[in-house]
Each structure stands twice: as C-alpha cells, then as structure tokens.
Amino acid sequence: MSEILRLEKVSKAFGGVTAVNEVSFALEEGEIVGLIGPNGAGKTTLVNLITGVHPLSGGRVVFAGQDVSRQKPYEAARRGLARTFQIVQPFPEMTVVENVAAGALFGGGLRTRQAASEEARRELAFVGLDHVADTPAASLTLPNRKRLELAKSLAMRPKVLLLDEVNAGLNAAEIDGALELIRKIAKRGITIVIIEHLMKVVLSISQRILVLHHGELIAGGPPREVLEDERVIEAYLGAKFAARIKAEGMHA
Amino acid sequence: MTSGLLGRLPAGALGYALCALWIALLAASPLTGDNYLVRIAVMISMFSAMALSWNFIGGFTGYPSFSTAAFFGLGCYVGAIAQRNGLPLFAAWALATLFVAAFAALLGLIILRLKGHYFAIGSIAIVEVTRLLVSSWGSVTGGGDGLNVPLMQGSPGAVAAQVLYAMLGVLLVAFAATLAVQRGRLGFGLRCIHQNEDAADMVGVDTTRFKIAAYTLSALFCGTVGAIYASWVGYIDPTDSFSILLTIKVPVMALLGGPGTAIGPVLGAGVFVLLEEFFWANFLQWNRAILGGIIVFLIFFLPGGLLKIDYRRFYRRAAERRAAGKAAA
C-alpha cells in the first residue's frame, strides 16, 4: 500500500473563528477511514478544504505526490478526488443517467457524450439504480438520491472518495444497503473517507478512525483504540456510551 | 392521419423543417419587391440572431443577461468608426464582431462572479456604462451628435436585400452554433451549471470557463448584427444604439419562443416582431403597454415558452370535440 492523500497542518479560519486547526493525517490507498466528531467539529469544512471549495488558511494538501493546496473544486474532481454532499446535489431536471454521465464526461475525462452515457449506465447498475435510469433525478426517493450521488462520484473514476454523511436521513434497512454498497466500492480499490454520526456504522466499516473536535484532530487509530481514548470519550462519546459499545463488542 | 404522421417523425424534425421553411420565406421577401416586407424580414432576422445569442447565456446557462444592447451598440460604433477610417464593409463587420467578443470575454471574467438578480443588475449597468462612455467620448464617437456611416452602394431595394442576406447569414451561423453547443460538451456543461452550479463544479465542470464561453457567444453575434445595422441605417447615435428597450426585448423574445432550445428564439423573435408591427400599426398609443402585458403573461403563464405548449393535445382535443359534435348531430 502506498500513500494517496496527505494533509500537513491544514488550517482554516473564517474571520476570527478557527474551524480547522493544524490537522495532519495521511491515507493509504484502498483504506476505509471514518471521520467522526460532534456537530461543528469541522468535518465538512475539512472535506471542503481537501476538495478546493474553501482556500486553505495554512498548511498543505498533497494528493498522489502533488501539492494540490490551491486547486479549484473542478480540478479536484478531474484529479480523482470526489466527494458527496451532506445535502444531496442532483441536477434536478436531468434524467438519472444524464446526472451520472456529467460525472463521467467532466470528472472522468471521457471524450464523448455517448461514451459517458454508457459508462453512466454501468455505474447505475453497480449502485442498483439501473431501473430508474431514464426518470428525472428530482423524482427519486432520498435513499435513491444518495445512491445517485455515489454513482455520479464513481463515474468520475475517483482514487479517493469523501462521503459526507451519506447515511443521514436513512432508516436502519436503508443504512445496511448503503454500507454494503460502500464495501463494494472499497473492493474496487478506491480509498474511502466516511463522515458519519452513527458510531455503529463507523465502527462496523472503518479500518481506522479519526476524531475531530473543535477543529483539531484529537485521536486517530484502529476503532478499538479510539473508543478507549479518554479525550474521545470526554469530547464525543460520553462514558456510558463508550462502555456500552465496548460491552457489545465483547459479546460479539 | 395527420396526427399519425406527426407521431412517426423523429422528435423535432417537424420543428426544423418549419424553421427551414420560415428562413426560406424570409430570404424570398425581396422577390415581392415590397420594401416594407423586406424591412420586416430584416428586423425578424436581426432579432432572431440576437435572441439566439442571448439563448447561450440566458437559456442554456440560466444567467439572466441584460447586456444585449451593450454588445449591439458597441458593434454599431466599432463597425461605423472602422468604416469611417476606410476599412471595407466586411472587414469592418468582422472587426466589430471580434471587438465585441473580446470585450465580453474580459467583462465575463468580472461580471460572471455575480449570480441571479445581482448578475441581472450588473448586466444592465453595463449597457448604461457603455452608453455613457460612447456619448462622452465625443472626439471618437461624435458624442450625442451621433455618427454618419458610409452608405452601402446600390439602389434602396438592392441595399435592403444585401442587409437581409447579411442578417440571415448571421442568423444561420448563430443557429448552427446553437446546435453544435447543444449537442456537445459545452452545452451539457452549461445545462449542469443552469441546474446546480455547485454540483457542476464538483463533477469537474470548469464553471468559470464555460460561463465565459457562453457569455462571449451571447455577445459576438450581437456585435456583427450591430455593425450591419449601422451600415444599413447610415446614422447611429448613443440612445438608439444602446437602447434599454432592446436589452429587454431580446430576452423576452427568447422566453416567448422557448429558452434553452434552438428553435425557440427564432420562433419568439418572429412572433414578437410581427406582433409589435401589428400593435404599432393599430394601437400607436398602447404598444408599450402591450409589450409589458406580454412580459407579465410570459412570466405567469408560459415559463417554458411557446414551444413547451403541448400542441398535439390541443389538436387531439379539437378532433375529439369535432367528433363529439358530429355524433350529437
């Protein structure tokens, strides 16, 4: 395994508020990493910094050996740094297949609309949306819109995929379906960063967990270690919850 | 039988056939020898070309631009000044086109950072600023006195026909450009921007470059049209060239026909010019009020334009009603 993405002391201040403070970590190719933290910890801001939505206030982002700290979002997309949004962002009046084809054509670097369209249908089959390929994106249900976001990102042929709360708003059964899909994506060799509130989800899927609190990285490592970290318990989990999760883990 | 034939045609083929027929009719107008008809044909071709231009930024991209009069006016003045300095007719028209395209591309860098209402207001301001610049820079533009443009050679009828074919030429090039954009990468990207600009950025559309391309395309044909217009009328002044009414009429035409389509702007411009001609002739006092009425009607009842009306349904309903009438009788 080799390193694909590295953050070096990445910081972001909005006026006087420091949203992200000197965050450093590295991702290996093919890893699934969970990024957790309380509301307002700076998780989404961090995704925005990595993909060029906000300019950095300090530090460096290195992607595949290249300094990409000053990239624009469309450049990130073309390089293979894809992300999904917490609030889904379809092109509402286009069909589902056109939505995905946009990802293939612009982010995936395909030459023709024909080729992009074919690629889009393959990705729709992969995420299980081929039966609604020709309906307008606006008519999809929420779980399907989340799948559409995934298909659109996958069509961009990403090396790293940042999933910003893809499970928010889904019920238990839908979450299980989404997790299965994320595992399938990881099998394709795509590095995945999953931002998530549901601890159960993060623990079941991540090989490694990063914990963000007040814009700072307070812990990082295998799920079990992170659960026992005093600072994580204090800042995020609470003592009771940490004990319960650990107990459940031991029974399993 | 007719509806069966309509159903079997490939989507849009009928529209393109009617459009081709319409353009042929316009081109044939000099054969009538009626100068009034030729003048109307020139106006229709001219506004069709400008509505098609506006369609790139307003229709495909969804940026409500009101800069049309600035591009048209600059086209008038660059063409006129070039001709007064001895440039041949076609060279002057080409120079006006290039100048306006370059102007729009540079301006686009700045103004396309604005969105929605702010962009609309900014684009109107450009018309005012260019008008003021031209009217104050008297040594070059003649200021408020206007400029005489060298007259085109030939009888009035021959000149009108030449102008008509020049305008039709621009119309055809703008139409071809629209089809090319619509089917290509650029058009797809512009549609993405129209529907969700942030998402377009995130799937890898270089939104700034795409928007500048659309804005430039929306300008350059207006530049050519302006230069041809200046040569046609032989005299230009700032109020006529940078008319705020022009800047509103052109988007209304595109909206009337069907924004974001190739045929819509041509249809809208034709209908609008004919309606306007009719209202001028019959309701001299009221024609501005009627223009306002059309705008309000469009916004409330026809957001997709005339093209989005389901004519086949009308036809079916009418057929059903006829059949019902026969059965009753």
Structure write-up:
- With 252 residues, chain A is α/β, with parallel strands linked by helices.
- Chain A folds into 2 domains: 3-80 and 158-251, P-loop containing nucleotide triphosphate hydrolases (Rossmann fold, 3-Layer(aba) Sandwich); 91-155, no CATH class.
- Chain A is 42% helix and 25% strand.
- Chain A has helices at 43-50, 73-79, 96-107, 113-127, 142-155, 172-187, 199-205, 223-228, 230-237, 239-251, and strands at residues 3-14, 17-28, 32-36, 58-63, 66-67, 81-84, 160-164, 191-195, 208-213, 216-221.
- Mean pLDDT of chain B is 88; it is low at 1-9.
- Chain B is globular.
- In chain B, helix 3 runs parallel beside helix 8, helix 3 runs antiparallel to helix 11 (207-233) and helix 5 runs antiparallel to helix 11 (207-233).
- Chain B is built from 16 helices and 2 strands.
Considering residues with a beta carbon less than 8 A from a beta carbon on another chain, report the largest interface and each chain's count.
A-B, 25 and 19 residues
Oligomer: heterodimer
Give the spatial strand order of the biggest sheet of chain A.
Answer: 6-7-8-3-9-10
Q: Count of helices of chain B?
A: 16
* Number of separate structural domains of chain B: 1
What spatial form of chain B do the alpha-carbon principal axes imply?
Answer: globular
Tell how many strands the DSSP assignment of chain B holds.
Answer: 2
**Unreliable spans of chain B:** 1-9
Strand order across the largest sheet of chain B: 1-2
User: Radius of gyration of chain A, rounded?
Assistant: 18 Å
CATH topology of the largest domain in chain A: Rossmann fold
β-strand percent of chain B reads under 5%
Tally the helices of chain A: 10
